[in-house]
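Tokens help. One example:
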Amino acid sequence: MKKLEMRDGCFLHPDTYEPLRSVQVIIVDGGTLSRNYYEGARLSCWSIGCDFPDKKVPPDTKQANRCLDCVRSIKTVHGGAACKYFTRIKVAFTDSESIYELRLNALSLFSKADNRMTLYKYEDHLARNGEHVSSVLTEIYLAPYKDFYKVYFKPVRPLIEGELADVKRLIEAADKQDKETYMANEYYIKNVKAIYPHLDQTYHYSQKLGRSAPCEPTENGAAYDLHFEMTAEQSKHLGKAIFAAYKEARKSDWAAKPSNPFKTSIGKANPIVAEGDNKIARAKLSGVLGGEVMSPPAMVDAKLNPLPSNFKLTTGSIVNLVFSLAPYSFAGQCGVAMRLKQVQVIKYIPYVPPAAEQFEEEEGFVFDGSAAPAPVVEQEPATEEDMFEGVEEDEPEEVKEPVKRKKKQEVEADDDDDIEDIIAEWGTDD
């Protein structure tokens, strides 16, 4: 589902990216009041409904068994609670066949000494007049408040009978599409070898260091990611799924086929080379998607026990992966991103510092734990792919590419044999 974004005191039209001071929409879903708690820049605990922490919250970061008992929800002397309210509403334009999502924080939900209406004050106003948010055309606008903007609501007119029927149809179609898309684009691959995993926190390519380095989720290019090595048969199956997802989402100005996501080696100075006919691919989850800071991919062991959020997976470990296939077109590149969702560790290779491979035990200093050593981070050589970490391929926002005329020889690959030939070539051009 597309997001209705806000930037610099304006909404961005989800199709044209035109800045708008206000929008007139139908609110098809008023959302569920929710809460989230951040430790630093990392989302640690959240609740959809404000009753209990979400089931996906890692046990080691869950703040309480019930939101009612959580100290993070108590206001401090500074005037606010550490755990913040938010909700996501769904809206539709009268001239559109799509539904869009708008995220609202606490200041746009609750009113204090203000004649203008935030969401819940607006809902109460409509209820007193025998209306509901889904039965009226609503104007949503932004107004400055201190150093940022608050979202306000006001009614424009009741919807006519035909518009009400359209709203119902849109809601039913959106629910069906969300379920079908999620199931169709989710991909599960077993027993692949992890290469340079970055899952304990977000990383990005550091020009200063010449390699990937830890960073905050909001920094440019921040992502949780790993490369993985798979067999030739696995790469053939994944390649067909990529083509199918791309074909279903492809628009008229997109390239005829997705870009090559496979490699036979990774790194330059000391490259890791895939064995035999094996291929290497990359799955990642950006630190921020749709304006929302993402929680890390869920990790479990072979018996489905959740792993702690700071667990460091290592190169060579054998894992099962779940990721969604997300077709995109951005800055002249067209392809299918593998958006990482879950990791199951089947065989764990303990981390061995490089120095330990070079030396033997001798008489002398033995560390007794009296001084904390600097954390050791497994590093990989800089890759050409890392140089483009700043490009967010999953959620393009502002760049619209002109329509590219096809060359005469560019033919769509619909035939299974043609697709298999293309997949066989993927990973050979390093």
In short: The chain has two domains: 5-159, 185-425. Residues 161-185 form the longest helix (25 residues). The radius of gyration is 25 Å. Residues 28 and 167 are 7 Å apart (CA to CA).
